[in-house]
Amino acid sequence: MIPRDGAAARDRFVLELRGPKAVLDPHRAYAAVWEEECDERGALAPTAVVFLTNHECPFRCVMCDLWVNTLDGTVPHGAIARQIRDALATLPPARQIKLYNAGSFFDPQAIPVDDYEEIATAVAGFDRVIVESHPAFLRGVYGDACRRFRDLIGGRLEVAVGLETVHQEALAALNKRMTLDDFAAAAQFLARHAIALRVFVLLDPPFVPHHEAADTALSGVRTARSVGATACTVIPVRGGNGAIDALPVEQRPRLGLRELEWVLQEALAGGPEGPPLRNDGPYSSLLREIFTNFRVLAPELHALGVIHGAFPDDARRQEVDDQIDLALLQRGGWIRHPRRVRLQVRLRLAIAASIAVRELVEGGHL
Ligand code: SF4
């Protein structure tokens, strides 16, 4: 059982349950991918994503598995810029670049501040540079470093911040070392300095009571919008980091696909706090587009035996959901659905696949 009180005790709980880290070369990014996502005007923008190899994040969040691909020491001078240059050489051209470092870009242990100029040169020409940061690294001297980096790059700076959940007790139990006020202060700092904000919201974090989980996830998206986020990413919690797997099952509320779809639909449809986030088509068109994107999954679903007679009753439906979840969780991956207002909702492929199958069933195509 994770200690509810005491950050130091929670740190120990997380650390003791960890497995080994990956063996990484400090001069090489540990991954690089190319993808498309909406730009601020809603047009699809080719985007390079470079997963930087660097010093581990100083926090010990219960749900985090990013430490696996990190180092125990700071990288040598010039290594980060070299990682970026080499990674970009392997990718198609892009207009945006994400520099994701499994922590906080403005943590000087992670990304040496003396390297900023060289990094800025490496990303010159990109319209938008997206990095990630904990709110603790968006104030004081770290905030100054953030503004300096903004001034060095040619394009617009966007900072992704993990809100995780608006459930205050759960946020504390997750060991995020951040309050909702800290998040709001970080959002204000970024807005004040003309830096765009992206927000990560967890879909089903532990410690959020099951009956509140869907509402809480939706509130997270709406909170992101209310503080001016131009992109919001909804992320299911992954297992496999040790700490998450050690939590008693009853403390790990897992939303069913109906609730996940509801969060997606409500988030896109807007709500009492603001205008609709989408106004360019009915929900069914969203489903069709999702299915079009992931048509490739159909053979896998057939292999699972879930398409024929899909969802005849709730029990079977749950079984189907579980099967798809399991298969695609192992495979990993995300859906990205572009919206005109640049709300970006990423859910597990499982969700997309399940929605698509139901759409086809209900449409009489299966
Ligand atoms: S702040 Fe982010 S990177 Fe650091 S431990 Fe928490 S979730 Fe992981």
Cofactors and ligands: iron/sulfur cluster
Residue windows where pLDDT falls under 50 for at least 5 positions: 272-312, 324-366
User: Tally of extended strands?
Assistant: 7
Instruction: Give the SSE order as H and E letters.
Output: HEEHEHEHEHHEHEHHHHHH
Strand order of the largest sheet: 1-2-3-4-5-6-7
Shape: globular
Question: Which sheet architecture does the biggest sheet show?
Answer: 7 strands, mixed
Percent range for helical residues?
Answer: 25-40%
Gist of the model:
The chain contains 13 helices and seven strands. The chain has helices at 7-16, 79-88, 116-122, 140-152, 168-173, 180-192, 213-226, 243-246, 257-269, 283-293, 298-304, 314-331, 349-362, and strands at 31-38, 44-51, 96-100, 128-132, 156-164, 196-202, 231-235.
Question: What does this molecule look like?
Answer:
By secondary structure, the chain is an alpha/beta fold. The protein has a domain at 1-198. It is built from 13 helices and seven strands. It has helices at residues 7-16, 79-88, 116-122, 140-152, 168-173, 180-192, 213-226, 243-246, 257-269, 283-293, 298-304, 314-331, 349-362; strands at 31-38, 44-51, 96-100, 128-132, 156-164, 196-202, 231-235. The chain has a seven-stranded mixed β-sheet, with helices on one face. β1 (31-38) and β2 form a beta hairpin. It is globular and about 50 Å long. Iron/sulfur cluster binds at residues 57, 59-61, 64, 66, 102-103, 134, 162.
